[in-house]
Amino acid sequence: MKDGFIKVAACTPEIQVADVDFNVDKIIGQLDKCREENIKVAVFPELCITGYTCQDLFFQNALLDKAMEGVVKIAKTTADSDMLVAVGVPVRANGKLYNCAAVIQDGEVRAFVPKTHLPNYNEFYEARHFAPYRGECAAIDLREYGQLEFIPPMEQTVFICEEIPELVVGFELCEDLWVADPVSNYLAKAGATLICNLSASDEVIGKDSYRRQLVSNQSARLVAGYIYCSAGDGESTQDMVFSGHNIIAENGSILAESKLFENGITISEIDFKKLAFERRKISTYPASAEWDYSSKDSGFLDKDNISRERFSLEMGETALTRKFAKTPFIPSNQAERNERCHLILQMQSHGLMKRIAHTHSKTVVIGISGGLDSTLALLVCVMAMDLLKRPHTDIVAVTMPCFGTTKRTRSNAEILCEALGVTFREVDISKAVLQHFEDIGHDFNDHSVVFENGQARERTKVLMNIANQVNGMVVGTGDLSELALGWATYNGDHMSMYGVNASIPKTLVRHIVQYYGDTCTSDTLRDVLYDILDTPVSPELLPTDESGTAMTQKTEDLVGPYELHDFFLYYGIRWGFEPSKVKRLAKYAFEGDYSDEVIDKWIKTFYRRFFSQQFKRSCLPDGAKIGSVTLSPRGDWRMPSDAVAKLWLEDIDK
Q1: 354 given a catalytic annotation
Q2: Are 560 and 601 in contact (CB under 8 A)?
Q3: Alpha carbons 317 and 280: distance in angstroms, whole number
Q4: DSSP H helical segments within 258-333, as ranges?
Q5: Beta-sheet pairing, 41-43 with 84-93
Q6: How far is it, in rounded angstroms, from Cα 575 to Cα 278?
Q7: Nearest C-alpha neighbor of 324 from the set 2, 628, 586, 9
Q8: 292: pLDDT confidence band, cut at 50, 70 and 90?
Q9: Which of 21, 485, 552, 629 is 20 to 30 A away from residue 279, measured at CA?
Q10: What is the pLDDT of residues 630-639, one digit of tens each?
Q11: Helix/strand/coil for 628
Q12: DSSP 537-552
């Protein structure tokens, strides 16, 4: 449970209809396997102790008595385990029969949670046998069935973990999710961060997709974990077929899912600290206060008739089985990735189109280096002009070679501009920079930050002044990863009139350019884009060799691999994970790619630079938000420029 991860399971055992002994043995067998996997919350299907499809046999006392014996027997097998378990069972109370989840832990049945909404349409006839829950309570005496120490209540209850207060477990049963106002809405308002659904959802064509979307959307709407556990093989096939479709979701993401018609155990880990972080961040998410439950007459399914119980879990590190993408900003599916790239280009170009139209700019001016960022920005400029139905010649692309410019990047810049039909200008800044060095008394052989930044600021000055010449605006090219690291020259490439890449991480820039190259119709444009993609990322601020072909400066050698930094950015900043947790996940995700020492080195670099370089982000040019992570001081990220990184750096070494 270290770092907020809890291992959970949806279990679909083989059953036989009305054979309680058989069913209980199969349930216990799966619980034994769950213990071996260190599962902390295990959920079984609706009415699995008897079988969901017993029909009028539910009226038989023999079956109901045997079901209670069975639930107590299951409970006793959990005496040596802290696992919180929910199994489906019919329960007699208040002169009626209820479809319930029996919540079990530490050898006892802790509570019976009744089903609220009973389907009585199409193939379902639950109202024939069961009563819907309407807020009534009852004490269920299990002494005659062998549970002597505790009399569990039948009522809607959430269970709060003593050791991890972010873990609050609520239960609903099948149709309770499918209605217009799901029970889980109220459970979440009462603080539940994990919803467990005991279901017996039969299979018909198309229902698996609908079910998957339903679970995913509800977990997203509630910012919760969701375990959906459905009945499988063994239920009666007299009129229905059950597929055992189990789903584990977290805030809209499907973490694990069973194959249809394969009984078994579906396992994953839900991150409850992540969910708690997101709920705190969302100002419209309702607070879950500690309510007074002394009175329960305020109404059905309101905050005052959802009881709270405490439960305890043994603390320890949760072994991870769920996947963490190395590149969380990039969809793994090719079709989805292409769709994402297309949408981003549309968003970037429409944002720029609005700015051009609003400022009545006759041109846009952009520095073009032959690198990925300026290439993407130029493509966006072209698309914006197309939207405005203006010629590409209204784009002034300026290449500004200096001491570190290689023949390859200089050539690619020109070929790219010619292929796109933009106005191309070359301004060699070498003489101007040398004069500047002479003016301030800087030795040319001193290749310090003065040597590098003198070139970067000269280029920005050139672009700004050309923009004045042509009644234009300067389009910035810097990306999100560079902003996070402060890998930009203050008042150099850091500055523009509009930054189209400011919300695009470096790892994603490459895929957008790749997508454009794959889908364009010009062979010349495609070839030059592919060559730019093959060019190492470099600011080209240190002198080349005598031939002008060897690149002497590679960004990732200096600041670290961008795929690591984007990983740190996503989990550390977007989700607020502690640096030690980010480091743990990085070592898990990049196992075999980077050594622990390399990850330790660059995560310290990331946090050190992220804190020290905030002053550059505090005065960013405008630029549209594209993804879920942005560092605009006017948008998602507000941070003091003099905040101290000590706490975060110390946590890395925990």
Answers
A1: no
A2: yes
A3: 25
A4: 272-281
A5: parallel
A6: 7
A7: 586
A8: very low
A9: 485
A10: 999 998 899 9
A11: coil
A12: P----S---TTS----
Which residue(s) pair with 228 in the sheet? 197, 247
Q: Per the structure block, which two tokens stand in for 426?
A: 């070359």
Q: Which residue has the tokens 């280009």?
A: 345
Catalytic annotation, pick one of 7, 46, 235, 417: 46
* 63 membership: H or E segment, kind and range: helix 61-76
Sign for the pseudo-dihedral over CA of 180, 184, 187, 191: negative
What 3-state class would DSSP assign to 617? helix
> What is the phi/psi pair of residue 204, to 5°?
-135, 165
Our CA dihedral for 294, 299, 303, 307, rounded to 10 degrees, sits at: 50
Q: What is the pLDDT of residues 549-559, one digit of tens each?
A: 655 567 788 89
The SS3 of residue 594 is: coil
Mean pLDDT over the full length of the chain? 94
> How far is it, in rounded angstroms, from Cα 572 to Cα 593?
20
Dump pLDDT digits (tens) for 416-442: 999 999 999 999 999 999 999 999 999
Catalytic annotation, pick one of 7, 66, 115, 604: 115
115 catalytic residue (yes or no): yes
What is the pLDDT averaged over residues 127-137?
A: 95
Phi, psi of 495, deg, nearest 5: -115, 145
Span 492-519, pLDDT tens digits: 999 999 999 999 999 999 999 999 999 9
Residues 6+ apart with CB under 8 A from 234: 13, 14, 15, 16, 17, 51, 263
- In the prediction, which pLDDT does 542 show? 77
Positive or negative CA dihedral for 179, 181, 187, 191? positive
Burial of 181 per CB tally in 10 Å (0-12, 13-18, 19+): exposed
What's 289's DSSP letter?
-
Bridge partners of residue 366, in order along the sequence = 397
Which residue among the candidates 174, 196, 341, 402 is catalytic per the annotation? 174
pLDDT (tens digit per residue) in 88-125: 999 999 999 999 999 999 999 999 999 999 999 999 99
pLDDT number for residue 45: 98
Q: Give the model confidence (pLDDT) of 454-498 as tens digits.
A: 999 999 999 999 999 999 999 999 999 999 999 999 999 999 999
User: What is the reported pLDDT for 299?
Assistant: 44
Rounded distance, CA 526 to CA 321, Å? 40
438 is catalytic: no
Please tell me the predicted confidence (pLDDT) of residue 24. 98
> Judging by DSSP bridges, how do beta strands 194-199 and 225-230 pair with one another?
parallel
